[in-house]
Amino acid sequence: MSDKPVVIADPGPLGLAAFGITTVILSLINANILPGATMTTVLELALVYGGASQLLAGMWEFRKGNTFGATAFTSYGAFWISFYLLVTNISAMGKDAGTGVGIYLLMWGVFSLYMFFGTFYANKALFFIFLFLVITFILLAIANFSGSSAVIGGIFGLITGILALYTSAAGVINAQAGKVVWPVGAPFMKQNS
């Protein structure tokens, strides 16, 4: 038996890529850039990559002792799986679908808001991902409550997804280079040692 601790790769880039790609595609639909008929594409992606890959990334973050990463990736993985189930069963909600989806999105906005406060101690890239994510969820919730267009929420979601993809790429490239090639910014606040 070896006394060396088991070291695992950083699961963050995987989780961010899964979140980013799924978010970009859904946001392109919400922003009316892609036709709504492509919802099937995002649903399959939501279940497998956005959902399952983020759940796995979250479990590996638990293994690394990263409470923030574990909570974020596991929760957003579950979000994408529940999103798949919600959309594929939305007809069962009948006339209350807008309100039900609005509450669903609003609660994810609340969750994202307190996770956003956790990013004050992370890098600036995560800060901006969560800032735009909170705005996205709130705008999409309002659109569902009011029955109005989700275009503005889709645009903010697109920004969120692109930021997540940048941060994922930075994690991969910086790890491979062994130095910072793509900056993600220092934290706004120092963690207590």
How many strands, what sense, and barrel or not for the largest sheet?
none
Number of strands: 0
The structure class reads mainly alpha
Low-confidence stretches: none
* Share of helix, binned: over 70%
Percentage of residues in DSSP E strands: under 5%
Distinct helical segment count: 6
Average pLDDT, rounded to a whole number, is 93
Intertermini distance: 32 Å
Radius of gyration: 17 Å
Integer count of domains: 1
Could you spell the SSE succession in H and E letters? Answer: HHHHHH
Shape: globular
Protein model, in words:
With 193 residues, the protein is mainly α. The chain has one domain (12-177). The protein has helices at residues 12-30, 39-64, 67-88, 97-118, 124-146, 151-177. The protein is globular. The mean pLDDT is 93.
The gist of it:
With 193 residues, the protein is mainly α. The protein has six helices and no strands. It has one domain (12-177).
List the keywords.
193 residues, mainly alpha, 6 helices, 0% strand, globular
